[in-house]
Amino acid sequence: PATQPLTQRLALPLRVPLRGEHPYGAPQLDVAHLLNTNENPYSPPGEVIAAITDRVAQVAATLNRYPDRDFHELRHALAAYLSSDTGVDVAADNIWAANGSNEVMLHILQAFGGPGRTALAFAPTYAMYREYARNTATNYQEIPRNADFTIGLEDARAAIRTHQPSVIFLTSPNNPTGTAMPLSDVEAIAQEAQQLRIDGAPALVVVDEAYAEFRRTGTPSATELLSVYPHVIVTRTMSKAFALAGARVGYLAAHPDIVDALRIVRLPYHLSSVTQAVALAALDTADLLQEQVDTIRKNRDRLVDWLRTCTTQGRPLTVADSDSNFIFFGLFEDRDALWARLLHHGVLVRQSGPAGWLRVTIGTDSDIDAFTTALTKELDQ
Ligand code: PMP
């Protein structure tokens, strides 16, 4: 056959739901102040870097072998950490982990979603839920939140009865709003989910707590519900509070039967020896990271207060309460124009959620100065 240039567009048997879709991801721009992906702005402290380097050097000599497929040591360490963060006793067989909580949630839908099944979430919320559903051929339904971003319980109950989801995503603190859910709301939804019969079993409630370590004093974690509602799953990540987004480690706590089901769908050896070593080193030195988390929480509260003193076109800004390492604020007539003007000052924030709102991640002092200076200038105009 005649040769063809590899640049020619190809007809592909792409799955129909993927046609016209674009890869998900915020712009990765070379900008001084990266406040658009809710990363921890601080590199890991020197002691943590030393611990990581030591652990990785040890496993380097064993890289001819596959990793511990069930990552026993890591599961023990994650259980100990989560127990100490929440005060709830969690054991190693309650823990599952993967390459980011993204992959943990993909595993959940691979095991519990799929053709003929539905996943339910409450908008505005994390945009990836829709993509995990699409990629696993799971139907996806989003129910709108109230204007203050709380979930209307009557709406939630009705939607659960109507759509009969096998998986319900709650996000607390939620992205992009930063708002956390009262435990009583999580509990009400867990009770409703328990009444469903999806091929004979209750629905699962996934509480995505990616930002939980940044929660304000008094804001609870849904881990408290695990022993009462065995169909609740709490997911966490090392990407945010542990300053380890580049290592890709997320995990969940749930009933051991849920963990066993996830083991069926994971790829063998999905967590590399290097990943396990890095995560173990960071968990060994978790205390050292607490200071960064405390600083981010303080800076967050201060920035929320400051934003609430700002006005746009004579009206005060609306600023959502934040239990996370970012703040959702508005309402701007043309948020895209403001986003572009902030970028012009070297400050990259995110257009996210309903029209008129922007989201800013809590950066270092210098990032926050750049953001407040740029925003003051732009709001004054
Ligand atoms: N859940 C929420 C609500 C998030 O905002 C993110 C990351 N932005 C994730 C999960 C996934 O994080 P990772 O895969 O890095 O653990």
TrEMBL record:
The modification N6-(pyridoxal phosphate)lysine is found at K240. Pfam families: Aminotran_1_2. Its EC number is 2.6.1.9. The keyword ATP-binding does not apply. Pathway: Amino-acid biosynthesis; L-histidine biosynthesis; L-histidine from 5-phospho-alpha-D-ribose 1-diphosphate: step 7/9. One of its GO terms (biological process) is L-histidine biosynthetic process. Residues 35-374 form the Aminotransferase class I/classII large domain. It catalyses: L-histidinol phosphate + 2-oxoglutarate = 3-(imidazol-4-yl)-2-oxopropyl phosphate + L-glutamate. Its cofactor is pyridoxal 5'-phosphate. Keywords: Amino-acid biosynthesis, Aminotransferase, Histidine biosynthesis, Pyridoxal phosphate, Transferase. The keyword Ribosomal protein does not apply. InterPro entries: Aminotrans_II_pyridoxalP_BS, Aminotransferase_I/II_large, HisP_aminotrans, PyrdxlP-dep_Trfase, PyrdxlP-dep_Trfase_major, PyrdxlP-dep_Trfase_small. One of its GO terms (molecular function) is pyridoxal phosphate binding. Belongs to the class-II pyridoxal-phosphate-dependent aminotransferase family. Histidinol-phosphate aminotransferase subfamily. Homodimer. PANTHER family: HISTIDINOL-PHOSPHATE AMINOTRANSFERASE, HISTIDINOL-PHOSPHATE AMINOTRANSFERASE-RELATED. This is Histidinol-phosphate aminotransferase. It comes from Jonesia denitrificans (strain ATCC 14870 / DSM 20603 / BCRC 15368 / CIP 55.134 / JCM 11481 / NBRC 15587 / NCTC 10816 / Prevot 55134) (Listeria denitrificans).
